[in-house]
Design brief:
It is found in: Cell membrane. The protein contains 13 helices and two strands, in the order ααααααββααααααα. It is an all-alpha fold and about 375 residues long.
Length: about 375
């Protein structure tokens, strides 16, 4: 073992003792998770490319660009981090001896931070885009283009990359973590390490909170529009489908990342060191975000749901019609909770036309929660 006086900074971990235990976790377990995640993201990327070529809806094409950025980020995150971990398990190399300058350790630490923050920041950006697209569709359509959407994805990558580079400037540090197969931020009582740990966790928690608030407003707005006169409203099928996918992405990110982010926040504020077993557990838990994200788009698409429920009334081409009971509950809920507010906004002429449309001489009207498709 290298003498402590000559130990490089990234291996002089002040928060937790370094333990060289390569057999602490079986290699095949990490290999299965990594391969599963890589295949999932690759399949999702192929599906996204096909959907981009087939879609004619502008807002949907913007959403697919964000999803493509998320899939690419998850794929590269698994590829880079798993390469380091797998090489450790295969060779049982001691990083203190093979990387005395801390270059590989710093690179892996940067990768962990970068590919950890990117999905959370992209989720918040997608929530902002959907919020503007649903609340202010005309303003969004006149200002947003595919080029600007790509620029927003690049901006998210730039912000996450800038945060991951801060330890190289002295603000925080990256250290080897037990069992010696990976590097991550050093959670200690030092001012720089303490501040960087809080920055990482707070950026993630703020992103999740912003996604939750904006998605909630977007869903409520969709319910209001869904209750409007179907023939007088523009198509909302794609909006509903995108919101379902975005909410699932938000739920997965919250469940996978909140335990780790809260744990880092508590450890940084306490300043008493951390429990390595808990940190390792929550890191593995967060890794599932990169594995589950692609399956949201692979499974929760209208084409897939049609195959799962082929007996649904697809003439209405509405995602809500997939589940009639859910659809009836939504109608009942909107009538009771939103009816008074919406009733005052409907012109008198529209009310009269709605009354006339329900006369016995006319065919049975479609449900007010279903919106006609235009695309």
């Amino acid at each position: 073992m290298t003498d402590s006086n000559h130990t490089p900074s990234c291996y002089a971990n002040t928060s937790t003792p370094y333990t060289y235990a390569p057999k602490m976790v079986k290699v095949y377990l990490s290999a299965i998770f990594s391969i599963l995640g890589l295949i999932s993201n690759l399949v999702a990327f192929i599906v996204l490319i096909k959907s981009c070529k087939q879609t004619q809806n502008t807002s949907r094409s913007f959403f697919l660009i964000f999803l493509g950025g998320l899939v690419v980020t998850d794929f590269m995150g698994l590829l880079v981090t798993s390469s380091f971990v797998m090489s450790f398990y295969i060779t049982y190399v001691d990083w203190r001896l093979s990387d005395p300058t801390c270059r590989f350790c710093n690179f892996m630490g940067m990768s962990m931070v970068f590919y950890g923050l990117c999905p959370l920041l992209l989720g918040a950006t997608m929530a902002i885009e959907r919020f503007i697209g649903i609340k202010y569709p005309f303003a969004r359509s006149s200002r947003l283009s595919k080029g600007r959407t790509v620029s927003m994805v690049l901006l998210v990558w730039f912000i996450a990359g800038s945060i991951s580079l801060l330890p190289l400037t002295g603000f925080g540090s990256y250290h080897i973590q037990t069992p010696g197969s990976w590097c991550f931020i050093n959670i200690s009582s030092k001012r720089g390490d303490w501040a960087f740990s809080l920055l990482f966790s707070l950026v993630g928690l703020i992103s999740i909170t912003a996604s939750f608030l904006l998605n909630t407003v977007s869903v409520v707005t969709l319910i209001k529009v869904c209750r409007g006169a179907g023939r007088r409203q523009r198509s909302r099928d794609h909006e509903v489908e995108m919101m379902v996918q975005l909410i699932l992405i938000m739920i997965i990110a919250s469940v996978c990342w909140c335990p780790l982010l809260v744990f880092i926040t508590q450890a940084a504020l306490a300043g008493n060191g951390i429990q390595m077993k808990q940190l390792l557990l929550w890191i593995r838990f967060a890794t599932w975000n990169q594995i589950l994200d692609p399956w949201v788009y692979i499974l929760f698409r209208r084409s897939v749901l049609k195959r799962v429920n082929p007996h649904a009334n697809w003439s209405r081409t509405s995602v809500v019609s997939l589940y009639p009971s859910f659809h009836e509950n939504i109608c009942r809920f909107t009538r009771s909770s939103l009816g008074s507010n919406l009733g005052s906004d409907v012109p008198e002429n529209n009310k009269k036309s709605n009354v006339m449309s329900t006369s016995p001489a006319t065919p049975s009207p479609s449900s007010p929660c279903l919106v006609g498709s235009e695309s």
